[in-house]
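Thread: quick sanity check before group meeting

JM: Hey all, I'm pulling together slides for Thursday and realized we never actually wrote out the predicted structure for the chain we discussed last week. Dropping the sequence here so it's in one place. If anyone has concerns about the input, flag it before I start.
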Amino acid sequence: MINSLSGRFLLLTILFVMLAEVLIFVPSVARFREDYLLSRLERAQIASLASLGHDMIDPEVERELLDNAGVYNVVLRRNEISELVLSSPIPAPISETVDLRQSTPFVLMRDALKCLLNPKKEIIRVVGYPTRAAGVLIEVTMPTEPLRQAMFSFGLRILVLSAVISIMTAALLFFCVRYLLVIPIKGVVEHMKVYAEEPEDARRIIEPQASVRELREAEDTLQSMQKELTSALRQKQHLAQLGAAVAKVSHDLRNMLTTAQLFADRMEHSNDPRVARAAPKLVNSISRAVNLCEATLAFGRAEEPPPQLSRVQMRALVDDVLENERLALCPQKVDYINRVSNAMMVRCDSDQMMRVLGNLVRNARQAIGAMGRQGAVTVSSEEDDKFWIIDVTDTGPGLPKKARDHLFTPFQGGATKGGTGLGLAISAELVKGHGGRLELLRSDEEGTVFRVSLPKGSAMSVQNS
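JM (edit): ok, ran it. Output follows.
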């Protein structure tokens, strides 16, 4: 109970209300003491009126009047003359004079605390103004013990009342906070537990219902996070299923390609000059396909193997990529332009870089084909002290907004109908494996430009620079 939010709120409410009551306890007791002393002056004044009309008063009557007033003697000052109206023996010397005519709140509170904390039975003189202008002043002598007992009794009643008020207030606040905050928070926690059991189930996503603004904002934020997580988990599951399917396909495809590779090797010895010229390209293509299948089977997951770096003449590699794309069927005429420098030697994995540029050029060709008019795909290069830079530019219609927002996200960044966006995601991962980056420089109605930046030094040195 004490470790719960509502339990702690209940305890704090009781403590704070009690603290507030304690802060007003001293002024209340001081006011009670002042009223007590004023009442003794008023009683003494009434008792003195009974003796003013008689020159002599019976001692028994005088003692009874003083006992009813709770004082030992009464001095009344009228017409500049002080007169001892009623008197009786005083059992002890007067220890203090209390003048109620000029007492400030601070003095009253100080004297009240002093009276409460002083256990001695003392006699005090009290001076004040008579009621109804019945004189200039009135003065009485009285014991402190009855006053102190009355103050203790009053203080005890104040404390008990404060405790009752604190408990009642805390109970009301407890039920209000429990209904408005604790129960809704528990509901959110239960939603989180249910969602955690099966986060892929979209039906378990929380529906914001809280009426409290702050709690509603928390539910809205939780709903957004759960939607993103559910989408990510579904995508991850999709990728896992795709990986398993690709591994199975790669296994059978590798066997078929191995057979095709044997036939391609024999084609190199053909007497037909056209077959002899085409055979090396066919062998290279089949070899890359076999290596890709073996890499997929070896790793069996979405991660790409680390690149096998070597010096590659980039213009020749781009020529192979463009030559392969020229063989593809396209409803529109596409011009392929290679502007890569003959002198550019890049340190990279040739197979992986061919996949990167192949994906970029293929996407460009498909974009131009969907446009319905002639276009061009240009591969150009430049370099500086840190990077080799390769740009793939097309004159297509540009990427749609959804594709730009999810550019390198599998199954969300497809630019054409039926596209999965895997090509760009795979390309970005392969370039990242080289320590470089793949980025979109421009995409509008005039065309699209992708840039591949490969570091000349190590990835660490490029990052530090």
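AS: nice. The chain is about 55% helix and 15% strand. Confidence is low (pLDDT under 50) at residues 459-465.
JM: adding both to the slides.
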